[in-house]
């Protein structure tokens, strides 16, 4: 479900100088010793599912045999389970996950390991909206659509956002400085939110991405730079207001980064920030998926543990809601939330000016955008139009991933002109205009939210956002995965 904004007005686009420091997903490399035995039915490239978009349940002979063997093994183990654990096991059977029990010994053996496994599954069921039944149902639906190459935005025609939605800013002009002054007058009510669940292994760095040096002269870590900007803003506000100012800074971590981020902050005295103004919230994980039937995967190094993966940085919304942090900030009189990521040093070059635009225009949501070259691997902001029997429907501004834009433009038969930016290439798809840039601005994922509207939206939606799945297929029929997939969500949704 997408967050719905009850009182959103217009969204401003601010254009700082361009940067190629773009967000990238990071995968964790496993390097562990086996625990609890090696899983005998862990993920492999062998696909046992029927054609996904026709039969999402695992009904092939191999899958049926595994399910039958798993159910028999569970029945032999059932006398040793508590009533709660027996209920969790039954839930897994209902979700088509009997294969998880194939290697289980009978009652009286490996009871602590069985309890550990079922406790993990219970936690996963509790943390996902609707529980594991909903997760499997959503996975089967999204994987079937993926196998059929269904574009979730099919039928929509992208167009350039209308000119009245934009506020173009250039850091060297007086208009930029004017909006910075307006933003500074609002900044005492600003909160910072940073999803930071990734490691730097893709970049050849073994630590958390927040510890990456942002430049080579001093080796200043990214987190230190962010903290320095917040400290400098606090100092300026204290001078103007004549009182101490503490701006909340929330970091969403993952199982990979939580302890390391805690240690990094503590060992550097929170980089000048007060410990009480920094909040760490750890996002939960979701089960990895072996195939289009939504088959869960055992950890290859632990036969009594599910392989799980992060659910994506969109979890930041549900965490802000369920933790009570968003409502607490509102009670404290905070007015604005700035969402940023651990992928660029430019967020703090524009945040005050963007805040000034939000305040002066009364915006509920403000995306900070940048000039973008055509076909650049960066999400865009665009309007979407769709023809209906009773007329056309227009969504004035939405973030769209770069890999979805080109198929939409191709289906629309043109470059998506209109709006305030002119055509997009007259049938050539996403091409550069006379300015040398695409008419579709790049989404930096620097997002300013009005806290009252945001908190109300969180209460209405629970912070749930639209999910997607991105399996890497091992076969032309799009039946088998190269590696386990999972459902994901993005904060810009």
Q: What's the total number of strands? A: 18
- What is the helix/strand order? EHHHHEHEHEHEEEEEEHHEHEEEHEHEEE
Please list the strands of the largest sheet in the order they lie side by side: 1-12-15-11-3-4-5
Strand-residue fraction?
15-25%
> Whole-number radius of gyration?
24 Å
Helix/strand/pairing class, anyone? alpha/beta
Mind telling me the CATH class of the domain at 13-21 and 152-285 and 310-489? Alpha Beta
Describe this structure in words.
- It catalyses: a monosaccharide 1-phosphate + UTP + H(+) = a UDP-monosaccharide + diphosphate.
- This protein is α/β, with parallel strands linked by helices.
- The protein has a domain at 13-21 and 152-285 and 310-489: Alpha-Beta Complex (Spore Coat Polysaccharide Biosynthesis Protein SpsA, Chain A), CATH 3.90.550.
- The chain has 12 helices and 18 strands.
- The protein has helices spanning 61-77, 83-94, 111-127, 131-147, 174-186, 222-241, 258-267, 315-322, 325-331, 347-361, 402-412, 451-461; strands spanning 13-14, 157-159, 190-195, 249-253, 278-282, 285-287, 289-291, 298-299, 302-306, 308-310, 336-339, 365-370, 380-388, 391-400, 442-450, 467-469, 480-485, 487-489.
- It has a 7-stranded mixed beta sheet. A 3-stranded antiparallel beta sheet has the order 2-13-14, with helices on one face.
- Helix 2 crosses helix 3, helix 5 crosses helix 10 (347-361) and helix 9 (325-331) packs antiparallel against helix 12 (451-461).
- The longest helix has 20 residues, at 222-241.
- The model is unreliable at 1-34, 38-58 and 418-426 (pLDDT under 50).
